[in-house]
Amino acid sequence: MIQNPILPGFHPDPSICRVGDDFYLVTSSFSFFPGVPIFHSRDLVHWEQLGYVLDRKEQLPCGYEMLSGGIFAPTIRYNNGTYYMITTNMSMGCKNFIVTAKDPKGPWSDMHVIEGADGIDPSLFFDDDGKAYYTGTTRVDEADGSCQAIWGSQIDLDEMKLVGERRILWKGALAHAYAPEGPHIYKKDGWYYLMIAEGGTEHMHSVTISRCDTVLGAYEGYLGNPILTHRHLGKMYPICNVGHADLVELPDGSWYMVMLASRLMDGYHKILGRETFIAPVTWEDGWPVVCPGEGKVSWTCPQPECLAPWQPETGLPLETREDFDGGRLGLEWNEIGNPGDEPFYKIEDSCLKLKLLKNELVPWELDGLSANVFERIPMFGSGGTKVSFLGRRQQHMCFEAQAELVFDPEKEECAGMTVLQNDANQLRLEIRRGEEGQLKASAISTKTVVREGKQYFEETVLGSVSAACHGPVKLRMDGTYTKYSFYVSVKSGEWLSVALDADGSFMGSETSGGFIGAYIGLYAYCDTQDKDKYAAFDSFSYTDKSEVFV
Ligand code: 6LW
């Protein structure tokens, strides 16, 4: 059996390709660095993370301010000895670019920006005659206004240039389809199939398909569209937002689909963001049937019979226990925005040391701006300053995170642990120097509220405790569905509660907007200036407690 989600936690817009017995899968990463995580499997059941496609600063210009900027949906394809990853960097002004590699583990090339390729969600298709094609999204003018559509063009991958005429291929299955996007072309039995997502990436998401006998012709929609959606299942069905998919053919001619979907917690809350799921596909009368006999994505699906059992050496970075004894961080750790020239963290003396930078974890510069993420992204370019944050995805409904902090803060300095969603939707356990010189731990929530189309940040202190000591101090966060509890300990074994069962439901994408899922992170800053001083974390652990905290 394959267990869904195959990539738990924030892993949206999956794209998959098969090369012989090996499957490779990439997902979107927005403003997190390194970008575009790449996964490998040989049986579609077990997955390992190979690394990241964009792991050099030159490949990922983006700022720390806009978590939902940066890298949108990637596509991975293989042709004739070369792997191609094509995607959009929104923080570069919506530029589409390709990187290539001979080995999916890397190194991947520098960016090749495709001039004249507008829109998001680029994909590549290699035809049998050796020609390659680009597809993406664009806007077209219609008699009754402009609408989004899927366009295509031949592309010369030696020159990394679009060639020939550019054509509108399809506008989606519905008469006025909302957000036709995420296109991929496949060829089967002489037909070109164009599969896309429609309905927007939240509850109304869906997968639709069309076909044509020429690659850049006018595609005709399938009468049975959508071929997959969960929007008709209502908001009680525990897997929702199903859409943005990619297909892969197995060696025996059977097919599977990977797609994004979100798991719900405590009602209709999507704190984990959009995750990667998988489902079997059959073909009937020349069209795909997804999850035959069931019509919806389930928690398990049959394992492909033609693939030999396989166990990866490393697997996915799901749980973390770090004493920071090694020289480098595990693959699960991400920072926000381009790393720049000056490292803001170091691993030294068996500690992770975060520099006290002036940028706060709450990007106050976004307070009062448009609530529309697409209007905000262009306001912040491709980077500059940093925020001192390192985090990993929240991948489980219930978890416990702990860190040991060795830090003697001066008045305007702080460090802590956070669960962070889009921009200013976050809960923090923050350590500062109190008025009387004691150490003070506070649990703080920052939430975005929208008024008249603008977003405003509201910050609330949920609880505080003080201790007459200079550290070290242990921090603990327990997440139980939408509730988060915060504790500190200055004596071994004794936990003091700072805030219990704080409401985290506002962090779900259904209210917080944007495209991210929750991260559990460590951070440090100084209110007044960048300082050449570090907050040291001696250990960090993130543990799945789904079986325990129920
Ligand atoms: C992505 C678009 C989408 O580019 O959301 O779900 C956007 N689909 O295809 C960001 O992930």
From TrEMBL:
<feature type="domain" description="Beta-xylosidase C-terminal Concanavalin A-like">
    <location>
        <begin position="321"/>
        <end position="543"/>
    </location>
</feature>
<dbReference type="InterPro" id="IPR013320">
    <property type="entry name" value="ConA-like_dom_sf"/>
</dbReference>
<feature type="active site" description="Proton acceptor">
    <location>
        <position position="13"/>
    </location>
</feature>
<dbReference type="InterPro" id="IPR041542">
    <property type="entry name" value="GH43_C2"/>
</dbReference>
<dbReference type="GO" id="GO:0005975">
    <property type="term" value="P:carbohydrate metabolic process"/>
</dbReference>
<keyword id="KW-0326">Glycosidase</keyword>
<dbReference type="InterPro" id="IPR051795">
    <property type="entry name" value="Glycosyl_Hydrlase_43"/>
</dbReference>
<dbReference type="InterPro" id="IPR006710">
    <property type="entry name" value="Glyco_hydro_43"/>
</dbReference>
<keyword id="KW-0378">Hydrolase</keyword>
<dbReference type="Pfam" id="PF17851">
    <property type="entry name" value="GH43_C2"/>
</dbReference>
<feature type="active site" description="Proton donor">
    <location>
        <position position="181"/>
    </location>
</feature>
<dbReference type="InterPro" id="IPR023296">
    <property type="entry name" value="Glyco_hydro_beta-prop_sf"/>
</dbReference>
<protein>
    <submittedName>
        <fullName>Glycoside hydrolase family 43 protein</fullName>
    </submittedName>
</protein>
<dbReference type="Pfam" id="PF04616">
    <property type="entry name" value="Glyco_hydro_43"/>
</dbReference>
<dbReference type="GO" id="GO:0004553">
    <property type="term" value="F:hydrolase activity, hydrolyzing O-glycosyl compounds"/>
</dbReference>
<feature type="site" description="Important for catalytic activity, responsible for pKa modulation of the active site Glu and correct orientation of both the proton donor and substrate">
    <location>
        <position position="121"/>
    </location>
</feature>
<comment type="similarity">
    <text>Belongs to the glycosyl hydrolase 43 family.</text>
</comment>
